[in-house]
Design goal:
The structure is a single chain. The chain is of the alpha/beta class. Helix content is 33%, strand content 23%. It folds into two domains: 174 residues, Peroxisomal Thiolase, Chain A, domain 1; 118 residues, Peroxisomal Thiolase, Chain A, domain 1. It is built from eleven helices and 13 strands. It has a five-stranded mixed β-sheet, with helices on both faces. Strand 4, helix 4 and strand 5 form a beta-alpha-beta unit. The longest helix is centred in the first third of the chain and has 16 residues. It is globular. The protein starts with a strand and ends with a strand.
Length: 335
């Protein structure tokens, strides 16, 4: 176990929520509202540019981080490490975490700042790496980890699939290295399959496929759904990852008080909870209020579970997140 404690949480989503019917008008699209609402569980979301709000990834991340810092009751200058977990960065370079650090601390400091990009698993992987760095470097007392998503910025005009699912938002944790406390990080388990890189993603703008007039004309920029993801992917993966994580930690599933999963599909989460023989009361859903916020959804779901007293100090928590690529991250800790 590693002596790292979550001492603050914060969320941010831009503007007033947009329900399914309003989205059709704002984005000039059509989609199956009933399937989106009763299958995926998405009834509303926040999308900055559809509300005319001039905010992007770094804005969302900064505001969520500041909310978490206030919640933790520390000074912004106390933070020794900033990690932004996202696959929708403010820029290709420099790192979004550098921008966030500059906005929060406003000067040169003895802090490290870097991004973790592993599609929608980015936050769980960033959390696992952050606690291990903190555990081995006693000079890092406080860290801010931010999961943030701005995929609607990459959704092309008229893309009903993209607009109906993906949304803007951010969730942040403040971590403290704290000995002699019941809160501990127990372990993490990662899984990768890079042969699945060509399913869904943003493929233009990097070194392989720079933005050119040809790319714009052919509309091969932005979010592309190249081939359908296997329909049973998360139903197969998540129970397997949980089993591996608990074996690694020498823990039993009966000890877990709450599970938080990637918030993309309510019906999938229900199937997974049935597969691991756990009651639905042990999980949370926030896609109904936020849509799918990628790397931001796990900390956002955790924030609300704590606020709603579904998660209490001393509870054992499991996070599982998966994303295109394929990347899966999981965490086991005592809150």
């Amino acid at each position: 176990m590693l002596p790292i404690k979550i001492i603050g949480t914060g969320v941010y989503a831009p503007g007033e929520p947009i329900n399914n019917e309003e989205l059709k008008n704002l984005a000039n699209i059509d989609f199956d509202s009933e399937k989106t609402e009763f299958g995926l569980g998405i009834t509303q979301r926040h999308i900055a540019h559809l509300r005319g709000i001039d905010e992007t990834t770094a804005d969302f991340a900064t505001k969520a981080a500041l909310n978490a810092i206030i919640n933790a009751n520390i000074s912004p200058d106390d933070v020794n490490m900033f990690i932004v977990a996202t696959d929708t960065p403010e820029f290709i370079s420099p790192a979004t975490a550098l921008v966030v650090q500059g906005r929060i601390q406003k000067k040169e400091t003895w802090a490290s700042s870097f991004d973790v990009s592993a599609s929608c698993a980015s936050f769980t992987i960033a959390l696992d790496n952050a606690v291990r760095v903190m555990a081995t470097d006693p000079t890092i007392k406080y860290a801010v980890i931010i999961g943030v998503y701005n995929m609607p910025a990459y959704v092309r005009k008229g893309d009903a699939f993209g607009y109906s699912i993906f949304a803007d938002g951010a969730g942040a944790f403040v971590l403290e290295r704290k000995e002699d406390d019941q809160s501990k990080y127990i372990n993490g388990q990662l899984l990768t399959d890079g042969t699945q890189w060509d399913y869904v993603g943003v493929y233009a703008g990097g070194t392989r496929n720079p933005i050119t007039e040809k790319v714009l004309k052919e509309e091969t920029y932005g979010l592309l759904n190249i081939q359908p993801l296997p329909s049973d992917r998360n139903v197969r993966l998540w129970p397997m990852v949980i089993e591996k994580l608990l074996q690694k930690a020498n823990s039993d599933i009966s000890e877990i008080d709450h599970f938080i999963f990637t918030q993309i599909n309510r019906s999938v989460i229900k199937k997974v909870m049935a597969a691991i023989d756990q009651p639905l009361e042990k999980t949370s859903f926030v896609m109904d209020r936020y849509g799918y916020t990628g790397s931001g959804c796990v900390p956002m779901a955790f924030y609300h579970a704590v606020k709603e007293n579904k998660i209490k100090r001393g509870d054992k928590i499991v996070f599982v997140a998966s994303g295109a690529g394929l990347a899966v991250g999981s965490n086991l800790f005592i809150y």
